[in-house]
Amino acid sequence: MRPSTPRLPAYRRRPGSGFTLIELVVALTILSILAAAAIPYAELSITRSKELELRRSLREVRIAIDRLHEDWETGKVSKLGNSISDDGYPRTLQVLIEGVESGEAKGGKRKYLRRIPEDPFGEPGMPPIEQWVLRGYQDEPDSLSWNGRDVYDVRSHSERTAIDGSRYREW
After folding, report:
1. How far apart are CA 90 and CA 67, in angstroms?
2. Where are the alpha helices (DSSP H) in the chain?
3. CA distance linking residue 93 with residue 148, whole number of Å
4. pTM for the full model?
5. In the list 59, 71, 134, 165, which could disulfide-bond 146, CB 3.0-4.6 Å?
């Protein structure tokens, strides 16, 4: 007859014996609680990065419009071309990419943007040039329609609300 060996406690079992069902359920519960807490922070981080990109895009286009207008006022670009309105603003956003005739003796074109930046809250698949709501120099600040004569300002189409409570279309 063999002497009986005492049963080892759970923490001293041989390696590879595995976890109990209760240990697995507790571990999964803890992981799900941590994931539920982390998801809103991840979504907030994504929204913040998109808002930052929207601010950069708006600034880039607005600076290009202002530079073209300044060049028009100082005579660096021709006032006779069809690409600039009588008020000194580009007729379309495409003018900022294609450029305008220089008013200098050596000629050439002055370009203001390499590309039209995308609206991060715009519709996916839509060309960037169509993602923006345009406002003309003669339009009212809160106008929803563009006069079609020139581009004085741009804004987002998005009806979504920003983290700070403002609407992206009001930026």
Report:
1. 11
2. 21-74, 94-98
3. 11
4. 0.76
5. 134
Rounded to 5 degrees, what are φ and ψ at 2? -85, 145
Question: Which residues lie closer than 8 Å to 118 by C-beta, 6 or more apart?
Answer: 57, 128, 131
Divide the 171 residues of the chain into consecutive groups of 10 and give the mean pLDDT of each group: 62 67 92 88 91 96 96 88 90 93 79 94 89 90 83 92 91 89
**Nearest by Cα to 158 from 131, 125, 134, 140:** 131
Rounded CA-CA distance 37/123 in Å is: 29
Beta bridge partners of 133: 155
* Tokens (6 digits) for 119: 């609206």
The Cα–Cα gap between 127 and 129 comes to 6
